[in-house]
Amino acid sequence: MQTEKFICLIQPHTSYKLMNVQPALFDQFDSIGLMALAAYLKQKGYEVEILHLAKAFRNGYSRDQVVRKIKSRKPLLFGIGNMWVHQSVGMLETAELLKKIYPDVAVVVGGQHASFFAEDIVRSYSDMIDGVIVGEGEETLHDVVKSLEENHGIVAGIPGFMTGNEDGEFSFTPRKVTVRLDQLPFMSHQGIWPHIVPAVGDIIPFAATLDSVRGGCPQSCLHCFEGNGLGKHGRDKMDFHSPEYLIDQLKRYIDEGKTNILIQDSYYANGDEPIEEFVSLAHKNNIYVDAMHFFVEPGYLSSATFKVMESFPARKVAIDYGIETGSEKVAANMRRYHDMERIYADVEVLGKTQTVSTAWWLISLPGEEDKDVKLTEKAIIDTTQMGVFTERVSQLLLFPQTELYKNREKYKMTAFFHNFDDFKIFSDIERRDNGLYPELVTHEMPYQTRQDTIRMLADLKKTIRRVTEASPYYEEKTKLGFVLNDFDFF
């Protein structure tokens, strides 16, 4: 029997092929996108459950058990998240399964990856998917649900909702998002199925992410989803949660047993003061967690703020510093901050903090030649010797929506991946101990082929291990919680 006010949201597995093993890209974290949608719908009077299929399959649940769970209660609507590239096949497998069980129940998909490939999805998979939510989903999903309640179907023209017809024509009106972040309800990990008893040493069940900013990024990097308007997702400009809101959200996470906290988005773009206030409020509210992770990029914060972050009341404070390349020429090609003198000055301060301070690096970048990769290798060595270790080095993924893809001829870049179906391969690749994935190289250049990219990655990983273990900071940073990771793809 259908419960009129019941909505089922689903975080899909990577693919049935990898349902019991770890894929190249990690798939076990709870989706804050689905949690945000659930909180919004609950505020509007609906009952919402999130099914985390990746977690279920990896923890021994069979497909039959998942089917029985789905059959246990018929919802008004199924919403499937396709936030990350490697969920594509799992999203389709889930949609197909749902339509077999409940052919009369609407199935919609959303998330960043689905948003960017909405036309491809609508064109090719309208037999199992009733539409794609493009951009921020709270208001759009609520409108879809209301339409199902009031009209027993999804009316045409809902802003932010893309549909198609048999002739391959699209119906889509962009949504202008006006709701401020601090007006949104607080998220909760409660109500996510299945509940898993944590294994000894497993921190994932204790991890939670603070959704701190939406509306893109102030940088306009050619290769990035967040810049060039792509990351706005319906907002005219960036909107940040207040420090007070983040503290209240954090309190709720702690009450749910979440003690490994992350801010992974560009909250740093709001400047020093909000971060300093967030840390100050944490002290005033007697907050203490096992780990607090901050992500920052060069050029936004004063180095004095690193010392403020260091003081956050946590057993471990981690600061990820996104440098990406050691070549100022390549960084300029990417329209990215490229003052290496300033970056080194920041690293010198950051490395001396009592934090797990790390940097991220990329290769296969526009205009990048062997000499530029050597500059990145030198920067890895220099920053490691200053106490900022490498979190990981990866190959750039070239997506069709980015400005870099659209202007790839300028850098003589040959793209291998062009559409949603091309990127489905990310759902089929199992994690490898060496962190090398030739199948996932999205492009090449005359001066850096696919084979060169993999060779350079392998060489850089060897350098990272060698210089990290030889660093005078290695023992100190290891005691603080650093773990040498030179194998993960991301």
**Total of domains:** 2
- CATH classification, class level of the largest domain: Alpha Beta
Helix content: 25-40%
Strand content: 15-25%
Secondary structure tally, helices: 17
The CATH topology assignment of the largest domain is pyruvate-formate lyase- activating enzyme
Regions with pLDDT < 50 over 5+ consecutive residues?
Answer: none
**SS class:** alpha/beta
Radius of gyration: 22 Å
Biggest sheet character:
8 strands, mixed
Question: What general form does the structure show?
Answer: globular
Provide an overview of this structure.
By secondary structure, this protein is an alpha/beta fold. The chain folds into 2 domains: 6-171, Rossmann fold; 205-480, tm_1862 like domain (pyruvate-formate lyase- activating enzyme, Alpha-Beta Horseshoe). Helices cover 35% and strands 17% of the residues. It has 17 helices and 18 strands. The protein has helices at 32-43, 53-58, 63-71, 88-101, 112-116, 118-125, 138-151, 243-255, 272-284, 304-310, 328-333, 340-351, 370-385, 403-406, 420-423, 450-470, 474-480; strands at residues 6-11, 47-52, 77-81, 106-110, 131-133, 161-164, 170-171, 192-193, 207-209, 213-214, 239-240, 260-263, 289-296, 314-324, 356-363, 389-395, 414-415, 443-444. The strands form 4 sheets. Strands 7-6-5-4-3-1-2-8 form an 8-stranded mixed β-sheet, with helices on both faces. It has a 6-stranded parallel β-sheet with strand order 9-12-13-14-15-16. The protein has a two-stranded antiparallel ribbon with strand order 10-11. Strand 13 (289-296), helix 10 (304-310) and strand 14 form a beta-alpha-beta unit. Helix 1 (32-43) packs across helix 7 (138-151), helix 8 crosses helix 9 (272-284) and helix 13 (370-385) runs parallel beside helix 16. It is globular and about 65 Å long. The chain starts with 5 loop residues before the first strand and ends in a 10-residue tail after the last helix. The model has no long low-confidence stretch (mean pLDDT 94).
